[in-house]
Design goal:
Number of helices: 3
Helix content: over 70%
Order of helices and strands: HHH
């Protein structure tokens, strides 16, 4: 029964990580989807390339940290704390590194 709870907690952690990463990514991607001034710079590749990668990374980073700590220490509270820390560092890294391409507004 304990192993089933730990498995469900890991899946829940992965789902929360994916949602948190996508919600942190969405405001920056809005420029590419909306298109900026008069929709001139629309780039929908952020939806079919970046969105799945961000969601997968948001799910896999905390889940991997959860599983590694759980296998080595067998303490679920420590695994959860380290997984949340890994998710926080992952989202921080995403926001500091990923910026969508924004060409200049006036190219004349």
């Amino acid at each position: 029964m304990q192993e089933e709870r730990l498995g469900c907690a890991g899946i829940l952690l992965a789902a929360v990580g994916a949602v948190a990463a996508v919600l942190a990514w969405a405001p920056r991607a809005r420029v590419s989807v909306h298109g900026g001034f008069e929709g001139m710079h629309r780039d929908l590749s952020v939806l079919y390339v970046d969105l799945p990668l961000i969601a997968a990374g948001g799910a896999l980073v905390p889940l991997t940290a959860w599983l590694l700590v759980l296998r080595t220490s067998r303490r679920p509270w420590l695994a959860a704390a380290i997984a949340v820390g890994a998710l926080t560092l992952g989202v921080w890294g995403l926001l500091s590194w990923w910026t969508p391409y924004e060409p200049p507004e006036f190219m004349g």
